[in-house]
């Protein structure tokens, strides 16, 4: 885990007429940033021959992301250097991705994934250095043991927010020699201990990013369901230790569900990725479908109480691989695009575990 370095611009949209310490805030979270080789080539074209520019392909998400008080992405891959950039199966992305994420409006990114060790400790260092330079907080991988002990500290409205991040594994890659803290792996006891430590350190809201689940499976798997249940059930006194769980990895959108009074997003799908081949050897357009979660937190009624999600929304998103651009499907529909089948499929999956009855709405 890593500290945020400089504070992100998470206070940039205070509620009208409110005072410090009493403002609620909106948090948005999105799925995997997965720059395959085709996306790297497109970023080179979009830069006009001068480096790499990923901002145009992310521009479709910017209206939603930039308007939030706090925006969280998942940076699945590590960064390369000096033109040594590769896609699947061992990723090394151009570090200009970080600058595009900042331009889009992201304040923080989880970095724990099965690709975190694609280039060993050097890849982690380059990635976190680039995110630092862009002014984006990060958590889930670390350059030092001391860095691993801290969450990403963020401010939003009147709240101090701690983000934690974990992955199910690293594709079999061992931890770098002498650096067992390089990537945070999923361990229920550790996650709860980290969340409680963040709360003791002053976190009003604890957000846990989970890289988990079964690839290409629409439904959350048994481990996701069991772990989601146990994490949301964890309490210190009457107060939950974790306030929001946001998931990535499966490549496809998965359900949202309110579990023990806490929202769990099992999987947001990929935000940017090329058209991929699934485990049956078939090109699978589901890998370019996803959602952005948007949660509006309200301050506690009494000092020391829980910040409560007063409004929960999802925005159906799609990465159009024909033009290599992120598309807000509701906005595209309003403009006359023939994307209703994709939008409706995402909505059906997101609501498949009863989230609508718990108050989840489809946002714009």
UniProtKB/TrEMBL annotation:
Domain Capsule synthesis protein CapA per the UniProt entry, residue ranges: 26-275
CDD domains, alphabetized: MPP_CapA (cd07381)
Organism: Streptomyces alfalfae
InterPro entries given in the database record: Capsule_synth_CapA, CW_Biosynth-Accessory, Metallo-depent_PP-like
The protein, known as: Capsule synthesis protein CapA domain-containing protein
Species lineage: Bacteria, Bacillati, Actinomycetota, Actinomycetes, Kitasatosporales
Pfam families: PGA_cap (PF09587)
Gene3D superfamilies: 3.60.21.10
Listed SUPFAM superfamilies: Metallo-dependent phosphatases
Similarity-based family: Belongs to the CapA family.
């Amino acid at each position: 885990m890593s500290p945020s370095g400089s504070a992100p611009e998470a206070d940039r949209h205070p509620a009208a007429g409110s005072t410090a310490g009493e403002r609620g805030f909106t948090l948005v979270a999105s799925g995997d940033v997965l720059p395959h080789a085709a996306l790297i080539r497109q970023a080179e074209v979009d830069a006009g021959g001068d480096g790499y520019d990923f901002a145009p392909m992310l521009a479709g998400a910017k209206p939603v992301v930039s308007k939030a008080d706090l925006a969280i992405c998942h940076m699945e891959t590590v960064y390369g250097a000096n033109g040594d950039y590769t896609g699947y199966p061992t990723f090394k992305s151009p570090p200009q991705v970080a600058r595009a994420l900042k331009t889009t409006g992201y304040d923080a990114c989880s970095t724990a994934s099965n690709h975190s060790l694609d280039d060993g400790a050097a890849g982690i260092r380059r990635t976190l250095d680039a995110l630092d330079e862009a002014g984006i907080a990060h958590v889930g991988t670390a350059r030092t043991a001391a860095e691993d002990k801290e969450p990403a500290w963020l401010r939003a409205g009147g709240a101090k927010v701690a983000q934690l991040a974990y992955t199910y594994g690293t594709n079999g890659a061992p931890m770098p020699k002498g650096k067992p803290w390089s990537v945070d792996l999923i361990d229920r006891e550790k996650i709860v201990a980290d969340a409680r430590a963040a709360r003791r350190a002053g976190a009003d809201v604890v957000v846990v990013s989970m890289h988990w689940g079964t690839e290409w499976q629409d439904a959350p798997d048994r481990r996701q369901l069991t772990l989601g249940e146990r994490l949301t059930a964890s309490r210190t006194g009457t107060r939950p230790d974790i306030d929001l769980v946001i998931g990535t990895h499966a490549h496809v959108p998965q359900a949202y569900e309110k579990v023990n009074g806490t929202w769990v997003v099992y999987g947001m799908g990929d935000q940017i990725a090329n058209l991929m081949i699934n485990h049956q050897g078939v090109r699978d357009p589901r890998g370019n479908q996803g959602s952005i979660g948007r949660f509006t937190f309200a301050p506690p009624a009494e000092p020391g109480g829980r910040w409560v999600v007063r409004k929960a929304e999802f925005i159906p998103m799609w990465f159009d691989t024909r033009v290599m651009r992120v598309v807000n499907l509701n906005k595209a529909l309003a403009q006359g695009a023939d994307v209703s089948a994709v939008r409706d499929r995402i909505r059906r999956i997101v609501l498949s575990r009863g989230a609508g009855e718990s108050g989840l709405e489809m946002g714009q």
